[in-house]
């Protein structure tokens, strides 16, 4: 009969595997056109490799989010500058 500890470890392992699979799906969507299906069989990945892919995707997501925020700030500044210039032209 299984103990609570064994049950908890199994549940944690299942959650890790599920997260890794979601990461792989996202990776496949992002790089689907780069990798050929014949070259990349999903069942050949280990849990460790899938977790690594998920971590890499999370890292990229954070990077892209930061990059987006920086570009949004620059865009807002440009928009404000254009608005100010338009007002100056109208006043002229």
Describe the structure in your own words:
It is rod-shaped and about 80 Å long. The chain is mostly helical and 92 residues long. It has helices at 4-31, 47-91. The protein contains two helices and no strands. The longest helix has 45 residues, at 47-91. It has one domain (4-91).
Count of discrete alpha- or pi-helical segments spanning 4 or more residues = 2
- Tell me the number of strands: 0
| pLDDT < 50 stretches | none
- From the N-terminal CA to the C-terminal CA, the straight-line distance is 86 Å
Strand content: under 5%
Shape: rod-shaped
Which series of helices and strands comes N to C? HH
Mean pLDDT level: 77
> What is the domain tally?
1
| Helix content percent band | over 70%
Q: How would you classify the helix and strand content by structural class?
A: mainly alpha
